[in-house]
Structure formats: structure tokens, C-alpha cells
Amino acid sequence: MDQNIIYVIILCTVLFFLFYYFMLRPQRRQQKEHQDLVDQLKSGDRVVTSGGIYGEVDSMDQESVVLRIESGGTIRVAKTNIASRVQRVG
User: Fewer CB in a 10 Å sphere around the end CB: N or C, the chain?
Assistant: First the structure.
């Protein structure tokens, strides 16, 4: 009976490490990359929001970014909604 308990403990430990390696580790890496992107934003950067809105960073504060959009207007979005930086063409 004691051997079965040891096998169950070993199996649970192995499953935990597999879960960590394939699920948690990549998620943390992705969060760090997104945080680095947000930290490096500066005025003039072209970005895409998670909602698909393209714009140019006009100004920023602690929690939000003001984007100048193509129509000439501006919108304020949360920094967490910035999905990626867009490369300038031309």
C-alpha cells in the first residue's frame, strides 16, 4: 500500500511540472513581453489596440494612452489594450 502512495505522489509532482512548463511559463513570458512593449512606448509610435484600432501615440500617463487616429481625432485607451507596435511603411 505504501508503494502506491509514493507512485501517486511522484505522478502528481511530474504532472505539476508539466503543467507549469507548458502552461504557466509561456503565459508569464508573454505577459513580460507585453509589459516591456507598454513600458517602451513613446510619443509618435504607431500601435494597434486589442480592439483593432490603429493609431499614433500622442501622449501617455500612468494608466492610459491618447492615440491620434487616421480621421484626425484622438481617443484614450488603457495601456493594457495596446496589442502591438506597427512598423512605419516608407
Answer: C
Determine, yes or no, domain membership for 22. Answer: yes
What whole-number distance in Å separates Cα of residue 56 and Cα of residue 66?
A: 8
Task: Give per-residue pLDDT as tens, 32-84.
Answer: 999 999 999 999 999 999 999 999 999 999 999 999 999 999 999 999 999 99
Range of the domain at 30: 2-85
What are the Cα distances from residue 33, in Å, to 2, 5, 18, 30?
A: 46, 41, 22, 5
Which residue in 83, 90, 78, 86 sits closest to 46, CA to CA? 86
Nearest to 61 by CA among 48, 79, 74: 79
